[in-house]
Amino acid sequence: MIEIVGVSKIYSDTIKALDNVNLKIEKGEFVSIVGQSGAGKSTLVKLLICEEKPTSGKILIAGRNIVQLKLSELPYFRRKVGVVFQDFKLLPQKTVLENVAFALEVCDALPEEIKDKVPRILDLVGMLKCKDKYPDELSGGEKQRISIARALVHSPKILIADEATGNLDPINAWEIIELLDRINRRGTIVILATHNKAIVDRLKRRVVLIKNGTILSDKVRGGYVI
Questions:
Q1: How far apart are CA 138 and CA 142, in angstroms?
Q2: What pLDDT, on a 0 to 100 scale, did the predictor assign at position 70?
Q3: Residue 137: CB atoms within 10 Å
Q4: 221/4: higher pLDDT
Q5: Residue 136: HSE in the Cβ half-sphere, 13 Å Cα cutoff
Q6: Residue by residue, what is the 3-state secondary structure of 115-137?
Q7: How many angstroms separate the CA atoms of 127 and 124, rounded?
Q8: Is 86 left (phi over 0), alpha (psi -120 to 50) or beta?
Q9: Alpha helices, DSSP H only, in 70-169?
Q10: What confidence score (pLDDT) does residue 222 get?
Q11: What would the mean pLDDT of 186-214 be, rounded to a whole number?
């Protein structure tokens, strides 16, 4: 489903964020991308969502090299790849329901589709009961659930969580990981970029360790050591 082939990203003579990275992620996998700050995790995420392009190499998703996507093709592509960030990125003036619905409205979805789909997604992430609340009335864990709901509203084949638990306490962080795990078991590829060793060790799923822009190890199950 995802194949990264010989990918490098060089920002300057002194900054090589990624160096000849090769990685394959199959349909239905849950993969944690781990490493210390500056290892190259965030750069890899930016390349996967076409926020940046690699200096060299190919990134194949469902057989297509996304490096070659035209500007006009990016909005459609990004609807197939859900992204959850550390800082939630919710609209403070909109309710929970409106925040999730907005992701469909900007894509000109029909009102009937929005009315049907948004409550189902909110129910999936356990937030239907909070649909009329505003972001400032929610806890950090609840805000992240809304972010995940918004990322899921287009039924993406891939969900990327970039330090999605970074602002959460351990209990809320693990609840978010359990939610991502349930989403993965429904068939969505989940890529978790994190430096939280405790979560990765507890997950016991595939772990890819990046250090200095290169893949240091790739384990099918278990934790990691830097």
A1: 6
A2: 92
A3: 12
A4: 4
A5: 3
A6: HHHHHHHHHHCCCHHHCCCCHHH
A7: 8
A8: alpha
A9: 74-79, 96-105, 111-124, 140-152
A10: 62
A11: 92
9 touches 67 (CB < 8 A): no
Where b means 16+ CB within 10 Å and e means fewer, 91-111 reads eeeebbbebbbbbbeeeebee
Specify which residues 23 forms β-bridges with.
Answer: 4
User: pLDDT category, 15, cuts 50, 70, 90?
Assistant: confident
- DSSP notation for 31-74: EEEE-STTSSHHHHHHHHTTSS--SEEEEEETTEEGGG--GGGH
Q: What is the DSSP letter of 215?
A: E
Q: Amino acid identity of 192?
A: L
Strands of the 206-211 sheet, one edge to the other: 81-84, 158-162, 189-194, 30-34, 206-211, 214-219
